[in-house]
Design goal:
Blueprint: E1 4-13, E2 23-33, E3 38-42, H1 49-56, E4 64-69, E5 72-73, H2 79-87, E6 89-93, H3 104-114, H4 122-132, H5 148-160, E7 166-170, H6 178-195, E8 198-203, H7 206-212, E9 215-220, E10 223-229, H8 230-234
Parallel strand pairs: 3-8, 3-9, 6-7, 7-8
Antiparallel strand pairs: 1-2, 1-4, 4-5, 9-10
Helix pairs in contact: 3-5, 4-5, 5-6
The structure holds adenosine-5'-diphosphate (2 copies).
One adenosine-5'-diphosphate binds near residues 105, 106, 109, 123 and 139.
Length: about 240
């Protein structure tokens, strides 16, 4: 059984204005994410990628179909159980979504607090994470004092703090220059190899997926139009 299973999943949003048409953001997606892999989800803006991420992360209910994470079907869960699933999935974003009023340390401590990790264990865990992402000297900096690449490293450390099995990266390198993008790609590869975290990389940047993903799914208008190994999908026709 795959770690994440989507079966004929659809998500329709109500019309944006009165009398408008409902928006079929995701329209019948079936896919598996296997434990230990890096899956790339690529497609142009509006293809439904972010909606797919929010369905996997149980931030939105599906309109149709089923999402199963680690053998548990989300539609059958109580809100309390869904919160547990969400805590088992780390997320990183294009705009990093850090808390500006908190230091790097405070940002990484936040998910530990939410997960109920005793404060006595925070020091060791946060130090370990800061070393892993190469920011051991930035614990007391505020996000505004960091470069974009450093901010995303904090985002990754925060996403990993509560030891999730899954990391969802939603356009995580889209605000970064090519060199910094490569650094973050290398870091995500280490997250996968050294920590065994399964990663779903959502992006419109084909190069990122080409460099990082084992397998690729191509989305268009809410559907999967192509899928396969990265090598096959990007091979010249
Ligand atoms: P992508 O991440 O690939 O750019 P999205 O999942 O953000 O795609 O969007 C897919 C479609 O759903 C787009 O047409 C978008 O305008 C629409 N959409 C996304 N979120 C909402 C929402 N909350 N309400 C209405 N329509 C939405
Ligand atoms: P915030 O601004 O979100 O409160 P802080 O960085 O001020 O975040 O610190 C949050 C908690 O972590 C505080 O209790 C602080 O004393 C502790 N802390 C911060 N940095 C360190 C550190 N390097 N070693 C040990 N404890 C720290």
């Amino acid at each position: 059984m795959a770690l994440i299973e989507l079966r004929d999943v659809a998500k329709t949003y109500p019309p944006r204005r009165r009398g408008g048409d409902p928006v079929r953001a995701v329209d019948g997606v079936t896919l598996d994410v296997n434990e230990g892999e890096i899956l790339g989800v690529v497609g142009y803006s509006g293809a439904g990628k972010s909606t797919l991420a929010r369905l996997i992360n149980a931030l939105e209910p599906v309109t149709r179909g089923t999402v199963t994470v680690a053998g548990q079907e989300l539609t059958r869960m109580s809100e309390g159980e869904l919160q547990k699933v969400r805590r088992g999935i780390g997320m990183i974003f294009q705009q990093f979504n850090l808390f500006h009023s908190r230091t790097v340390w405070g940002n990484i401590a936040y998910p530990l607090k939410v997960a109920g990790v005793p404060t006595s264990q925070h020091q060791a865990r946060i130090s370990e994470l800061l070393h892993f992402v190469g920011l051991a000297d930035k614990a007391h900096s505020y996000p505004e004092q960091l470069s974009g690449g450093q901010k995303q490293r904090v985002g990754i450390a925060r996403a990993l703090a509560a030891s999730p099995k899954i990391l969802l990266a939603d356009e995580a390198t889209s605000a970064l220059d090519p060199e910094t993008t490569q650094d973050v790609v290398d870091l995500l590869r280490r997250v996968n190899r050294e920590l065994g975290v399964t990663i779903v990389v959502i992006t419109h940047e084909m190069e990122v997926v080409k460099n990082l993903a084992h397998r690729v799914v191509v989305m268009e208008n809410g559907t999967v139009v192509e899928s396969g190994s990265t090598f096959d999908v990007f091979a010249d026709p």
